[in-house]
Specification:
Radius of gyration: 18 Å
Distance between the termini: 42 Å
Strand content: under 5%
Structural class: mainly alpha
Number of helices: 10
Order of helices and strands: HHHHHHHHHH
Largest sheet: none
Amino acid sequence: MLIGTLATVTCAAIVGLSARSFGRSIVFAFGVNWVLSAWATILGLHVAPLRLPAPYYSTRPFEKGGRVYDRLGVRWYRQALRRVLWSVNPALLRSQPAAQETMIEGTKDAETGHLLIFVLITGMTVWAFVSGWWGSAGWLLLFNLLHNGYPVLSMRQLRARISRVRPKSSRALQPDAGRSG
């Protein structure tokens, strides 16, 4: 709890000082995403992971086909960053149900962190817009979509794809397994 409090206070101070010093710049818009990502990572490592209610993570019928995410460019985004940030071994996911469940649980933690940061930066974007800082609002919006919005969509699409290839025996354990879509 102490580490979480110290991390939150430190992060808030860094963001506040950065906003005063660089608030109207691309440096602030880019940097605030990374400061908040570091904060979420520290909280995830030292405090119990923040989770939304279980129904939030359920795969929706429109997500199962993946077409909506493809139209939004999520597959392109994931392919562009795959070599830099992460990789998934599809053969391992197909052959080992335990690996699939571990991956699904991992996407939930990452998605929650990115969603929390997305909401915080959206608030900052509104503040910059209301303050008349048009350039900052635009940069905040752009970097928020790239650093947080697309990762949230990517995690949701990945869960939907894993659910499609999961063996029937492990699907029976899932709350949304009986839904048709």
